[in-house]
Design brief:
This protein is an alpha/beta fold and 383 residues long. It folds into two domains: 237 residues, Type I PLP-dependent aspartate aminotransferase-like (Major domain) (Aspartate Aminotransferase, domain 2), CATH 3.40.640.10; 122 residues, Aspartate Aminotransferase, domain 1, CATH 3.90.1150.10. The strands form three sheets. Strands 2-8-7-6-5-3-4 form a seven-stranded mixed sheet, with helices on both faces. It has a four-stranded antiparallel sheet with strand order 9-10-13-12.
């Protein structure tokens, strides 16, 4: 097979779809108005944002929620947690989350702890699932919000958010979920699943970077992070990124079930082939897993070395450990599911996209086998 480059790191970001670029282009030039302006240029931009809001809202049955546009998933998660915490501190100052949340949630919680809030970090099982009884037992009279990720960005675990939403609703506690990885890949119904706040973003679904959103149920008390002209229902001041919002809406609109089925087929092909290598296991569940996620640990090698080997052969992936950052600490997600540090450091994540092909996966498996074999031959860990 003749290969140029194969991109298998779509959980980090995705290429912008050509249809998205075409949808955005006019809003950089002839339709460049500020949506707050009263003249025709401003009204044109305001109508475009309103239409985009409707398009995205239909994807999650947001009949009783308003969509607040943000700069991305990190801002959405911060707005949800900090906004709820400060708006509802008369009720209590207790927040519940899990040990495998995205860093922006965990760091927001650490900051809230410094402001006097109490945080409970729920454990997860080997596959990354939260125990529902443990969650229910953790809820107190002073609990104001439960924040549990919908689908984990590293190991792909899809949490039972309908059951979690019911528990929170029954106890009168707000429920927030980070759906940045799952939006358009896993069915979401804000009403049936009793979700009060839902974070999404654009660049994980072939839209532009720098734009995201937070769905907020009507009646939810939420303080803004940014203060200014009162844009976005008074919850997110700042001139709207009209071009980005239009790209986000187009990206959401073009995602179809056929894309999910295609990615799931390639994921299964990759999982079955990789597990034949030996001294290797899948992290996260075999089922109830993101359609595009395959995360493995390989004994006796470093994930970072494996990534470099694959990259030299034209294949882009990412490691489950933090070796590539300034910190040598293993991934908090992998240690949360019980992996030892050396096992966590021997991990790698493949995240597929809608445009990947069978031939690319066949080539990837061929190179993966060769690379693992080469690295194990020189490994100081294998005796």
């Amino acid at each position: 097979m003749s290969v140029n480059r194969i991109y298998l790191d779509n959980a980090a970001t995705t290429p912008v779809d050509p249809e998205v670029i075409n949808a955005m282009a006019p809003y950089f030039t002839e339709k460049f108005g500020n949506a707050s302006s009263l003249h025709s240029y401003g009204r044109e931009a305001a109508r475009a944002i309103s239409d985009a809001r409707k398009t995205i809202s239909k994807k999650v049955n947001a009949k009783n929620h308003k969509l607040v546009f943000t700069s991305g998933g990190t801002e959405s998660n911060n707005l949800a947690l900090k906004g709820i915490a400060f708006a509802n501190k008369e009720k209590g100052k207790h927040i519940i989350t899990t040990k495998l949340e995205h860093d922006c949630v965990l760091n927001a919680c650490k900051w809230l702890q410094k402001q006097g809030f109490k945080i409970t970090y729920l454990p997860v099982d080997r596959e990354g699932f939260v125990d529902l009884k443990t969650l229910e037992d953790a809820i107190r009279k002073d609990t104001v919000i439960v924040s549990i990720i919908h689908a984990n960005n590293e190991i792909g675990t899809i949490e039972p958010i309908a059951e979690i939403g019911k528990i929170c609703s029954d106890h009168g506690v707000y429920f927030h979920t980070d759906a940045c990885q799952s939006f358009t890949k896993v069915p979401i119904d804000l009403e049936k699943q009793r979700i009060d706040l839902l974070s999404i973003n654009s660049h994980k679904i072939y839209g532009p970077k720098g734009v995201g959103g937070l769905f907020v149920r009507q009646g939810v008390k939420l303080d803004p992070l940014l203060h200014g002209g009162g844009h976005e229902f008074g919850l997110r001041s700042g001139t709207e990124n009209v071009a980005g919002i239009m790209g986000f809406a187009k990206a959401a609109d073009i995602m179809r079930e056929k894309h999910v089925e295609h990615m799931a087929k390639l994921r299964d092909m990759l999982i079955e082939g990789a597990l034949e290598i030996g001294d290797c296991w899948l992290n996260g569940p075999r089922h109830e897993r993101l359609c595009n996620n395959a995360h493995f640990s390989f004994k006796y090698i470093e994930g970072e070395s494996l990534i470099i080997h694959l990259d030299l052969r034209g294949i882009a992936t990412s490691t489950g450990s933090a070796c590539s950052s300034k910190s040598l600490e293993p991934s908090h997600v992998l240690t949360a599911i019980g992996l030892k540090p050396e096992e966590a450091h021997g991990s790698i994540r493949f995240s597929l996209g809608k445009d990947n092909t069978n031939e690319e996966i066949e080539y990837t498996l061929e190179v993966l086998r060769e690379s693992v074999e080469t690295l194990r031959k020189i490994s100081p860990f294998k005796r």
